[in-house]
Amino acid sequence: MREQKKQATREALSAAALRLALERGPDNVRVDDIAEAAGVSPRTYNNYFSSREQAIVAAVTGERGARVAAAVADRPADVGLAAAVIEAIVDQYTAPGEPGRDALLLITASPALREAFVDTTGAIEHPLTDAIAGRLGDTDPHTARVLAASVAAAVRLALGRWLQTTAASFTAGGLVVPSGSLPDLLRATLAPLAPALDAAEQQALRRRR
Amino acid sequence: MREQKKQATREALSAAALRLALERGPDNVRVDDIAEAAGVSPRTYNNYFSSREQAIVAAVTGERGARVAAAVADRPADVGLAAAVIEAIVDQYTAPGEPGRDALLLITASPALREAFVDTTGAIEHPLTDAIAGRLGDTDPHTARVLAASVAAAVRLALGRWLQTTAASFTAGGLVVPSGSLPDLLRATLAPLAPALDAAEQQALRRRR
DNA sequence: CAGAAAAAGTGCGTGCACGCAAGTTTGCGT
DNA sequence: ACGCAAACTTGCGTGCACGCACTTTTTCTG
């Protein structure tokens, strides 16, 4: 029940942060406002988030880590590790595009928010490590960590490029082509890691018998 | 000449930061002290570094990015990409251990400094991208970026684990084995990425003819 | 060589992150 | 049901990062 309450205030805080940012623009939101809107003290806000940007972005990226991990775990056992990971990520990063269309617009508009959004990639690292370790049979958690970290790094790269090009296409007024959809960009960015993922899977199989 | 002066003040700042941190302990160093010791205004210090930890750590990690890139480029052309990258990194992360032995002790002692030190890994990403792209023949800069980011992420993991275990071995008073030397740890952490590096190299070769 | 343009340094003000030391709530054992 | 211990919240104080406007220095150009 303690956990429930913590999660509740966390969501209240990030929801308030996003709402206020949408209403007034990101630069006209003081920390005190967010805290007040969520019904906690400013100091408490700071126990949950260490920057306004983090709070705002968390409203969009909240449970991505857990969702990605679940998606990886749910792929059928007979598809390769690389395919499982890549498709799980593509799914999870494309599906939630709907809920906050204007939120994404807000994020792309502000460099600080863009950076915070891209940095949330680090949050998928630990859940993804567990998911990969599960598929590899828990023989070598070390390898799983490395692969998860690499995948996270690649996703960070893809998101960065995507935000960059979409932002550019705004300012350039359409002269710049959006450079491909996010799913395509993700697939292309993750492709070079596929050999490493599949090699690890083969080695795990070999080790198991 | 402009660049020279910038680099000079940058080094003056980080050197002063490290010296003061060693003299008084990291928590007894104010930003104003660093600025004064380097002969610039506090505001200027802030144009170079956005945290004390960054300034201190930069004294140790300064040119690592460029050195790693050069080391990768200097490996003979007939060794595989994976071997070239891994050995270059191992070299560059082991050689500079001598200059600041006490500096590393200082860093391991403070969590904030540990984090800053580990985060410097990101700085090798761009130089390493260029080095890898050079070896791949510049056909696909995108792949080079992904690989460099993954390598950087793996190095970050290795450094994190290394600092963690060495710090633990301090507090535990020797009960915990240092868990292997840094070179071994780096090799073990980078190993899972070797298939990806070599696969990219093969593909580059195939594309070239 | 003068004078403009660009770039780096500086002073100031604001909002913030975070340590610390209370106070308050929650959950558990008896 | 009671009370205690651990976890969470809060107020306060300090140092800091960073935007902005301005001065000083460096570089470029006619």
UniProtKB/TrEMBL annotation, chains A, B:
Domain HTH tetR-type: 7-67
Cited Pfam families: TetR_C_14, TetR_N
Alphabetical list of InterPro entries matching this protein: Homeodomain-like_sf (IPR009057), HTH-type_TetR-like_transc_reg (IPR050109), HTH_TetR (IPR001647), MftR_C (IPR041347)
SUPFAM superfamilies: Homeodomain-like (SSF46689)
Keywords of the record: DNA-binding, Transcription, Transcription regulation
Source organism, top-level taxon: Bacteria
DNA-binding region residue numbers: 30-49
Molecular function GO terms recorded: DNA-binding transcription factor activity; transcription cis-regulatory region binding
Name recorded for this polypeptide: TetR family transcriptional regulator
Organism: Planobispora longispora
